[in-house]
Design brief:
Keywords: DNA-binding, Transcription, Transcription regulation. Residues 12-72 form the HTH tetR-type domain. The protein is mainly alpha-helical. 73% of the residues lie in helices and 0% in strands. The termini are far apart.
Length: 207
C-alpha cells in the first residue's frame, strides 16, 4: 500500500510538472506557438509519457481545472437527503464562486487569466471544452431524471441544458470583467447577484 501511495504521488507530481510547463510556454508564446514536444522538453519527460497523462494538446489547458468527479451530476448524487436537485446545484455554484473556482470565471490569478485567454482565443480548446461539457450535461440529465423530481427524461434534458447554459454565461460575464482589469473581489458581489437571478429563472421555468 505504501508503494502504491508513493507511485501515485510521483504520478501527480509528473502531471503537475507537465501542466506547469505547458502554461508557462502558452503564456509566453500562445497555444499555436508551442508544440507538444516543446512542453515535453520543458517538463523533462518524453512525448509518450506526456500523452499518457494528456490525450490531446488541448487537454494540457483544460485538465488543470476539469474534474470528472466533481461536476453537477456529482453534486446531485451526493447532496444531503431532502435537498432539491436545483437547490443543491445553486448552493454548489455559489460555493464555487466563494472559492474563486477558475471555471466560474471569478479568479484573477495569473494561471486563471492565462486559462481564459487561451480558452477564448483558441477555437480548438473551446471545442474540446464543449465536448467535455456536453458529456457532463448528459450525465446531469441522467441524474436529474433518476432523482424523481422531474416528470420525464425530456424535461431532465432541458433542465440540464439550462443549468450548463447558465453556468457558461455566468462564467463568461465574470471572466470578461476580470479581463477588463477588475479584481475577483470587486466582481464577487455582482457575480453572486447574477448567479442568484439565473438560478431563480431556471427554477421559475419549472413551476
Amino acid at each position: 500500500m505504501e508503494e502504491l501511495g508513493l507511485r501515485e504521488r510521483k504520478k501527480r507530481r509528473t502531471r503537475e510538472a507537465i501542466m506547469d510547463a505547458a502554461f508557462a510556454l502558452f503564456r509566453e508564446s500562445g497555444f499555436d506557438g508551442v508544440s507538444v514536444a516543446d512542453v515535453a522538453a520543458a517538463a523533462e519527460v518524453s512525448k509518450p509519457t506526456l500523452f499518457a497523462y494528456f490525450s490531446t494538446k488541448e487537454d494540457l489547458v483544460l485538465r488543470r481545472f476539469l474534474d470528472d468527479t466533481s461536476g453537477p451530476a456529482f453534486v446531485i448524487r451526493n447532496r444531503p437527503s431532502g435537498v432539491p436537485a436545483l437547490k443543491a446545484l445553486r448552493q454548489s455554484y455559489l460555493q464555487r464562486l466563494a472559492k474563486r473556482d477558475t471555471l466560474t470565471g471569478l479568479n484573477d490569478s495569473t494561471t486563471a487569466i492565462t486559462f481564459h485567454n487561451l480558452l477564448y482565443s483558441t477555437p480548438t480548446v473551446m471545442t474540446r471544452l464543449t465536448v467535455y461539457m456536453l458529456a457532463q450535461e448528459r450525465e446531469l440529465a441522467t441524474e436529474l431524471f433518476a432523482s424523481g423530481e422531474l416528470d420525464d427524461e425530456f424535461t431532465a434534458n432541458i433542465v440540464a441544458a439550462q443549468v450548463f447554459g447558465v453556468q457558461r454565461i455566468l462564467a463568461d460575464h465574470n471572466a470578461q470583467e476580470i479581463r477588463s482589469g477588475r479584481t475577483a473581489d470587486e466582481v464577487y458581489p455582482a457575480a453572486i447577484t447574477r448567479a442568484e437571478k439565473a438560478f431563480d429563472m431556471v427554477e421559475a421555468a419549472l413551476v
